[in-house]
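In this section we walk through a basic example: taking a raw amino acid sequence and producing a predicted 3D structure, encoded as discrete structure tokens. The instruction is simple. Fold the sequence below.
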Amino acid sequence: MVNNRNEKYLFPLSIQLTMSDDLYCPDFVNTLAILAEYGFYGIELNIIDFDKYRPAKYVDLLADYNLKLVNIASGAYAKRLQLSLSSEDSAIRKRAVAETKGMIQFASEIDTGVICGFLKGNAVGNRDLSNQNFIKSLSELDADILLYKTPFLIEATNRYESTIVNTLSDAVGIISSFTNPYMRLLPDTFHMNIEEADTNYALLQHRDYFKHLHISDNNRHFPGYGAIDFSKIFALLKGMGYQGSVAIEGNPYHSLKESIIFSAQYLNNISYKLLPTLRGGACFNSQNKGERW
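The resulting token sequence is shown next.
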């Protein structure tokens, strides 16, 4: 497989994918091949059934394409089981805690993290009560996160998707109340475009709390298909000495393959302008070079 990751982008680049019932289905495997060709570092995987495959199966398949399993995304699983760590229904909340403990242990076996986005809870309910319930759930998860040394990434999502943790400050306020180095912030440019007065300032202000960043455009498509200027965001990250990674998380505009290629080219162009020593690579010399419309 192609071994060119970290040479085309300013930061290690991943993408979030939702797995079908079959880990080895042709569409998924073909997507992995495209990611390898375009120099991706890894994937975040939305797993809908944690009992079907042992954790090592995911790692072994991705290794065939020189890709890493960067994080486990919990959104699809949480939606499937209607999990909420902030639910006013104690039975739902307790079930969510139990399932999350399972995800934390699962992730620890393959040295990766767990993303807590939709898992926090939806946009229904009293904000203060939901926040209290969420903190209570985190208190019950705290020991497991420490025991398994599993990064637990609390994503700040917009008010239309969740009652709680809408801004980076919201997330940092909660994280700071724990003495757990594995509880981390996960910023997302789509949600920040809605909730933050200044995306770059918010990233700079909270730079000590995150090592991973979700990037998607203002219309929830992949970077390059909307109005967000990612060159300014990448320049800020470079300027503040960011040593973490980034992951595309959003909706394809065209087919998944076309959207991956377009966004990869767009991000490569930005990276090359900010750090000219990066390789553009022959695979980026198609007619569509990822330029904005």
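Looking at the output, two observations stand out. The CA atoms of residues 5 and 39 lie 4 Å apart. The longest helix spans residues 127-148. In the next section we compare this with other chains.
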